[in-house]
Amino acid sequence: MTDERKDRPRDAKQELAALEAAARPTFWGFLGCELVAAEEGRAAIALQVRPEHLNLAGIVHGGVLASLLDNAMGLVAILACPGDKTVTSGLNVHYLASSSEGLLTCEAALVFRSRRTLTLEGRITDNKGELLVWGSGTFRRVT
Which parts of the sequence belong to the Thioesterase domain (predicted)? Predict the structure, then answer.
């Protein structure tokens, strides 16, 4: 049996829309991530802060920020290795400032690629452009 999707040409916009639709029922959608832009080696996603994203201090929970960073960098890894499964093998997160409302944007970029691993960096900013988080991650191709 052949995969008809491989036989039909699709443009990058369609591929990204399909990827985002597939991610909606996963943790990506549960968290509230939205695709902003993506191209080879780069991606940007956004998250509208909701009350469930806050910790008891009333600021966005560090786990939410780490997940946003991981999702953006993971998207870049997926796009860099089409057809392969990639997993996060390391994530470094530096919390620089806090936020409690508004739209957060995470931009991620591929820094280095070897045969089996990818190294990325990411930045999360608030709706005023203030840098909240800087991080790096390594991803491993498992297939």
Answer: 58-131
